[in-house]
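Shape matters. Shown next:

___
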Amino acid sequence: MIKMRYLLAGSLLLALSLQSQQSGFHFFDPKNLVDIQGTVQRIDLKEIYGKKSQFLVLTVASRDQGLYHVEVCPQWFLENDIAVGMKIRIHGSLLTETEGDDYLIAQEISLHGERITLRDRRGFPLWSQQGSQDGSGKRKGPGRRGKR
C-alpha cells in the first residue's frame, strides 16, 4: 500500500514536470536542418534553459523566407560581435511546433565570411564539451571556441 502511494506520487510529479517543460522546451533535430540568409533585425539575451546562462537570440529577416528567431548559444561562448543590420547565414534545426515566426536552433553561423560552429553534427552544443564560464565573466579552456 505504501509502495503504491509512492508510485502514484512519483507518476504525478513526473507528469507535472513533463507538462511544464512542453510549453517552452525544445530540442535540436538533426533531421530538420535548413539554411537561411538574412539581416539581423534584433538581438536579445534570454534565459531559455533556466538561469544557468543567458542565450543570444537573434531575429533575422530573410528576403525570401520571412522572419526567424534564431537561438545561437550562451552569451559567453561567442567571441564575435553581432550587430543589428549585419548580414548572416545560419545552418540549423527548424522547429516546426512553434507559434508565430519560425524558430531555428543554430548549428553554425557565418559572419563576414567566417564560419562559426556551435554544435556538432548531432546537435550537441560545443560549449558543453569545452567547459563553461567560471562566474568571473572569463572563459575556461581554449580561446576562439566554436571556430573551425
Notes: The chain is about 15% helix and 35% strand. The beta strands are 33-46, 55-62, 66-74, 87-95, 102-111, 114-117. Confidence is low (pLDDT under 50) at residues 4-23, 132-148.
